[in-house]
């Protein structure tokens, strides 16, 4: 995603939230966001700040389309990443603040955005289909519930 993201390339978000490309200045907030999300999962591991930095602004960022979401107070509430792994394979990451009241709407907007970004990557690679792989911590049932069922664009059964 270019530094100045056109408005049509940003996710639909709840009122009072804005999306933008992440920057190095977001790293501390992103580590905290991922840590709060992981706190919900049993047997969670620690968050590696260097790994987050590599994804967001390091060499690993070159093959990713990313967006962070801030609320009206400027607090980082969500992060989504679409990683172009290879022709026909795309990794998706969606991290939503578990303390955010609008988390369901944020997740919906971000999953729609990841699907559109993955389609754009496939078009740029001139492939007709791509396998989407959701990266999530084992036991994060809320995130699993938000994720669309494969091939339907609909949330998984029982999700909100």
Structural descriptors:
160 residues, alpha+beta, Aminopeptidase, 4 helices, 5 strands
What's this, in brief?
The chain is of the alpha+beta class and 160 residues long.
Structure summary, number of beta strands: 5
CATH architecture: 3-Layer(aba) Sandwich
* SSE order: EHHEEEHEH
CATH class: Alpha Beta
Basic shape:
globular
Question: Kindly, what is the distance between the CA atoms of the first and last residues, rounded to a whole number of angstroms?
Answer: 30 Å
Order of strands across the main sheet? 1-2-3-4-5
Report the uncertain regions: 150-160
Q: What is the name of the CATH topology?
A: Aminopeptidase
Helices and strands, with pairings:
Blueprint: E1 18-20, H1 27-38, H2 49-56, E2 64-70, E3 76-86, E4 89-96, H3 103-125, E5 131-134, H4 141-146
Parallel strand pairs: 4-5
Antiparallel strand pairs: 1-2, 2-3, 3-4
Helix pairs in contact: 1-2
Detailed description of the structure:
This protein has 160 residues and is an alpha+beta fold. The protein contains four helices and five strands, in the order βααβββαβα. The protein has a five-stranded mixed β-sheet. Strand 4 (89-96), helix 3 (103-125) and strand 5 (131-134) form a beta-alpha-beta unit. Helix 1 packs across helix 2 (49-56).
